[in-house]
Amino acid sequence: MPQILLDKHWSDFYNNGRDFTLATSQDISRFLQYVDPAVPMTALDIGCGTGQLTRELYHRGYQIIGIDGSSSAIKIARSLTRVPSSHLLYLHFDIERDDLGRLPCTSFGLITCKFVYSFIQDRAIFAAAVSGLLADGGLFVVATPLVGCVPPKEEAIAVSKDGTLSLLQEFFDVIFYKKGGTGYFLCRKEMHV
Predict the structure, then answer these.
(1) Could you give the domains of the chain?
(2) Residue 119 carries which DSSP code?
(3) DSSP three-state, residue 64
(4) Cα 94–162–68 angle (5° rounding)?
(5) 62-117 tens-digit pLDDT
């Protein structure tokens, strides 16, 4: 889908008052326990939507950039952010189409991707790009609906656990766990000495 149509599609979604399931404090604490304390406290939230996870990570000490392909989502996220800070930035940015060099930071200790992975067109290129942005020892968290674990009407936005695990293992060391119909793939970039 061309970028302008993609923006319109998702902007219509957010402009109609819709949003994705919020990450609970317990979910965030659970995946953060896998963060290596030696990596930088910089984070990228891919597909940040209205910014709930982005703001939560900021409040937990991260210097963070939230990106989304929907200009409306970014506008809403900015309006919901009460504490202006140079450590919390929202950008209208399409991870698949925009130049990664446009990001103000190109090395992150944590990258999150909540309910976005199933919409990525070329997941191998995406995983390679994320690996390039992730600091050595950094953590990439993919939270996504799983086929067979969601109602039939949601199967179109779900991914195969085995296929996803196999692809991500080409780029990262992966730990997997499931909560309800959501799979959490915790992907660590190997340290290079």
Answers:
(1) 3-188 (3.40.50.150)
(2) G
(3) strand
(4) 15
(5) 999 999 998 988 999 998 887 767 899 999 999 999 999 999 998 999 999 999 99
